[in-house]
Fold:
Amino acid sequence: MTLNELKPGEMAVVDGWLTDQPPLRLLEMGLLPGTEIQLIRFAPLGDPIDFKMRGYHLSLRKTEAAMVRVRDIR
Structure:
């Protein structure tokens, strides 16, 4: 499952990336393996997506969110 497949309100844990090299920009923003993240809402046209993690809100484009592999927390 990837970040863009979550539904609003769902929480997940970052598990890795779908690319060989993790995107440095996402690592710098704190998207590290083991980080809990919650999808808050989609923009009216679906892009960008608002997430909450580590006590702050983070907006990612759908293409960026599709690169982050997560596992659901239940």
Observations:
- The chain has a mean pLDDT of 92.
- Residues 37 and 53 are 5 Å apart (CA to CA).
- The longest helix spans residues 24-28.
